[in-house]
Every structure is written in structure tokens, then in C-alpha cells.
Amino acid sequence: MKRDREPIPQSRSSFLLVKCPDCGEERIVFSNSSKDVGCSGCGRELAESRGGKAYIQRNVAVVKRLG
Ligand SMILES: [Zn+2]
Fold it and tell me: What is the whole-number distance in angstroms between the Cα of residue 10 and the centre of ligand 1?
């Protein structure tokens, strides 16, 4: 079975700066986001919310953790 989404490590909430693989736009994602997060540049889905937890799409790079 192919995994195409990975949970953000650590159970406590944090903000992650992620980068869109398609257009390079950077976006902040809250790890406990209750909404899907799309790229503000091209509209690509960057993170999907499932059960109150954000799953970063594969190929979307986490630039840094903001705490
Ligand atoms: Zn984009």
C-alpha cells in the first residue's frame, strides 16, 4: 500500500513552514489544523486535515519548524 501522506511528527502542536514543490511558495501550516491547506500561489494542496491533525503531502518540503 502506497503512503502518500505523512503525519507531522510530535504530538504537540506546532507551526511548520513548508514549501510548495510546484511553485516554490512558502506557507505556514499549523500541525493541528482543522482545515486543508492549499498553496497561496498555485492552489496545490500542501496539507490535508484528518481527525484534527494536518498531514503534509509527500514532496512538500518542511523548511523549518516554528515552535
Ligand atoms: Zn504552489
Answer: 26
In the chain, where are the structural domains located? Answer: 5-65
pTM for this model (two decimals): 0.76
Q: How far is the CA of 2 from the centre of ligand 1 (A)?
A: 23
> Ligand 1 mean position to 4 CA, how many Å?
18
What class, spelled out in words, does domain 5-65 have in CATH? mainly beta
Residue 14 Cα, ligand 1 centroid: separation in angstroms? 22
pLDDT in tens, the chain (67 residues): 567 787 766 556 789 999 999 999 999 999 999 999 999 999 999 999 999 899 999 999 999 998 7
Question: What is the SS3 assignment for 16-63?
Answer: EEEECCCCCCEEEEECCCCCCEECCCCCCEEEEEECCEEEEECCCEEE
